[in-house]
Design goal:
heterodimer; A: mainly alpha; B: Rossmann fold; 2 domains; 6-stranded mixed β-sheet
């Protein structure tokens, strides 16, 4: 049998020399710290937003449509006028936006673990969960950008948060803490289910009642009696109450405390489960 | 199989005994023993679903074996996984680089993870991009790369900190001949540098070109082990392929060839093709003469080295499955082996 054409000897020798030189000329660095590897994976997530910015558009499309739809179609009926309604609705729709986006953390992990790059990360001498933690760090950036877009729209539609910039920032911090805990749930789906589609499906099935049976759109006292306690104790409602209070400048310490407690509880329950599953992931 | 060893003085880079990994009811790896000398290339040759990838994934600490144990560079792959990870690099079967990032970003990312600061990581990335002839494409997202470029980046990514042992899982599957040659040169350069390499391949000639020793694997077991010369000797000195002008004459051709070659003649899927392994190439000319005398027209004929299929046929009694380059069968390739049986 004939051998395939061999490149010119000089070219071959050049390749060999270059590869050997690059291997010889390198000192072995000290291992990276956990903080540094998590930060590096966060940077990776930001690079992905930079290279594929349309993913931000995808996740903010619905909240933008919802904001416009509810404000102008139902605002008058619900609060007398669209501009009155947006004062009530804006903080809620920001919560809804972020809560919905959290599921993409699970979808992204599911896509990632099936790629060769994940094997490479796992075969490196680094703290394994830093891939996950870094991805979540990147997601925080995504939540923040999406919230800013929706808040910007709300302000353009007449939303005037009485809590001022500080109130809005405090509300965002609280919301991000809650979202972070929540994202661990979708990572469980992301690790357990086979395809990104099924992760999305499962997440939406859980998210829909969680987001709609809340005080985001209307006050619970307009609802039938049996539904009111369900809506009022829905964790998302508790967070919405605190976020709304902070943005409007009338939050009580109790509201904030409960929302923090809910966020901490979600994190305390799901983070250990997720981390265990993640460590066992093969 | 003779016990002649290459570089028997050097210590073992990999020593595995009785590795088993089960997925559901399938034993993907079914008792693999391995001894790989440091500074050599060891070839793991077998079809899709043979358990090659699963074995590599166990040795690279990505999978925990169900049974058996292995030492990689003197460290246990389970209890000292971190020590193993700091000395090995893995280039997976499906590009283990991030498609959405640029080539440079990929290398900087890995450099940062391995402990370089930003400046060092960037400098290292640029050195590697130059050495692997990727400098021009450094700022492009990897998804725009050709197969050969992607593979080179993939190998470069494994050398951000040069490992003592490099795992290459099917490094040339799907590459054109030129890119394949480039990858071969890179592997030779690395070995010249003292790196040990464990590579899996479906191609006999690749194992032949690169590997000091080869293990042939099938259904999760090592069915033969040795140098490429030893393996070929066990298969016969060569094989003859005959294509006929007329498919109807094939049974006749088969009996004529069987009688004159003195070995079994196999019918191929192609209705005009026959192949046989020959121990004595001298008899081939005579056999072809007999075909002509019988009036059977031969349109093509070749005498060459045994192919992987023939090695398999000789060693296992069944042909190697033709691999399909399916993009996301990484684990399923191993799980589906019942189908391949």
């Amino acid at each position: 049998m004939t051998t395939a054409t061999v490149p010119a000897t000089t070219a071959r020798q050049q390749t060999i020399n270059a590869v050997q030189a690059v291997c010889a000329s390198c000192e072995r660095p000290a291992p990276a710290s956990v903080l540094s590897t998590v930060g590096t994976f966060g940077w990776r997530a930001l690079l992905k937003i930079k290279h594929v910015p349309q993913q931000l558009f995808d996740v903010t499309m619905f909240p933008i449509l919802f904001t416009l739809l509810f404000t102008y179609l139902f605002g008058g009926a619900l609060s007398g006028s669209p501009s009155d309604y947006i004062q009530f609705f804006a903080p809620g729709i920001v919560v809804q936006t972020v809560v919905f986006i959290t599921m993409y953390t699970g979808v992204a992990i599911n896509t990632d673990v099936h790629k060769g790059i994940f094997d490479r990360f796992r075969s490196m001498p680094i703290w394994r969960p830093s891939v996950l933690m870094g991805a979540m760090l990147g997601d925080l950036a995504r939540y923040t950008i999406a919230s800013a877009i929706v808040l910007g729209l709300a302000v353009a539609l007449g939303f005037r948060p009485d809590g001022g910039v500080l109130g809005v920032l405090a509300a965002m911090v609280l919301l991000l803490a809650f979202a972070w805990g929540l994202s661990f749930i979708w990572v469980i789906f992301g690790l357990k289910l086979r395809t990104p589609e099924s992760v999305m499906q499962m997440s939406i099935t859980v998210l829909f009642p969680l987001v709609f049976a809340t005080n985001i759109f209307v006050r619970p006292k307009t609802m039938p009696g049996w539904l009111q306690p369900i809506v009022e104790y829905n964790p998302v409602s508790l967070v919405v109450t605190a976020v709304r209070g902070l943005m409007q400048g009338n939050a009580t310490g109790g509201d904030i405390g409960i929302a923090l407690l809910v966020s901490a509880a979600v994190l305390a329950v799901f983070a250990p489960i997720t981390m265990r599953l993640y460590a066992k992931q093969q | 199989m003779s016990d002649q060893r290459l570089g028997s003085q050097s210590p073992l880079a990999i020593e595995a005994s009785g590795l088993v990994k089960t997925f559901g009811s399938t034993r993907a790896v079914d008792g693999v023993d391995l001894a790989v000398r440091a500074g050599t290339v060891y070839g793991f040759l077998g079809p899709n679903g043979a358990g090659k990838t699963t074995t590599i994934r166990m040795l690279a600490t990505l999978l925990v074996p169900d049974e058996g144990s292995a030492q990689v560079l003197g460290h246990d792959i389970v209890s000292e996984a971190d020590a193993v990870r700091s000395k090995v690099s893995l280039t997976g079967q499906f590009a283990s680089v991030d498609d959405e990032l640029t080539g440079r970003e990929n290398l900087v990312l890995l450099g940062r993870l391995l402990g370089y600061d930003k400046t060092q990581a960037k400098a290292r990335a640029d050195d590697l991009l130059d050495a692997f002839e990727l400098a021009d494409a450094a700022g492009r997202q990897v998804e725009t790369y050709s197969g050969g470029m992607r593979r080179r980046l993939d190998i470069a990514a494994s050398l951000v900190v040069p490992p003592e042992l490099l795992f290459l899982d099917e490094p040339t599957t799907g590459l054109d001949p030129r890119s394949r040659n480039q990858v071969w040169e890179i592997v030779r350069a690395l070995v010249g540098q003292g790196t040990s390499v464990l590579l899996t391949t479906q191609y006999l000639d690749e194992a032949d070109q690169l590997a000091n020793r080869i293990a042939v694997v099938d259904h999760g077991k090592v069915i033969a082990e040795g140098t490429s010369a030893e393996l070929k000797a066990s298969v016969g000195s060569g094989s003859v392929h005959v294509r006929l002008g007329d498919a109807d004459r094939r049974p006749e051709a088969q009996s004529v060839l069987t009688a004159n070659l003195g070995v079994p003649v196999n019918l191929e899927a192609d209705p005009v093709s026959l192949t046989a392994r020959v121990d004595d190439p001298e008899r081939v000319a005579g056999a072809l003469g007999e075909l002509a005398r019988a009036g059977v027209a031969v349109s093509e004929f070749s005498l060459g080295q045994p192919s992987l299929d023939e090695v398999f046929l000789a060693l296992t009694g069944h042909p190697a499955e033709v691999p399909e380059d399916d993009d996301d069968t990484r684990e399923r390739a191993d799980e589906d082996e019942e189908d391949a049986a």
